[in-house]
Prior knowledge:
By secondary structure, the chain is an alpha/beta fold.
Amino acid sequence: xxxxxxxxxxxxxxxxxxxxxxxxxxxxxxxxxxxxxxxxxxxxxxxxxxxxxxxxxxxxxxxxxxxxxxxxxxxxxxxxxxxxxxxxxxxxxxxxxxxxxxxxxxxxxxxxxxxxxxxxxxxxxxxxxxxxxxxxxxxxxxxxxxxxxxxxxx
Length: 154
């Protein structure tokens, strides 16, 4: 990828973090190459940790609600440390399905899929996939409850 693309993406992500209107955040993040559905709410300070060259590494479904200070990590490694040769490299896309709700301060690590209607508790660390309609919380996040939908749930 070109330097211009990486610079553009870095600037757009920075502007999106504190954009005044939530709709502006969504629009700016779409311009970064992220797939974001309809009626998505993204609060202040969404932090996306990634390799800037990547495209399509985050997919957010329809009607997803993301609270303040959520962190999405699609790539993690020790940079120039001497342990780089044998330390684990973690990289993978994050998929957040329709109607999910991510609580304030939660961290979602690489390669995680959050199921439809799932709820992530505040300050949780999500290491693995979350099934649909499950409420998870903790560090690491574990299921604390299963939601039972009403008759109107599609």
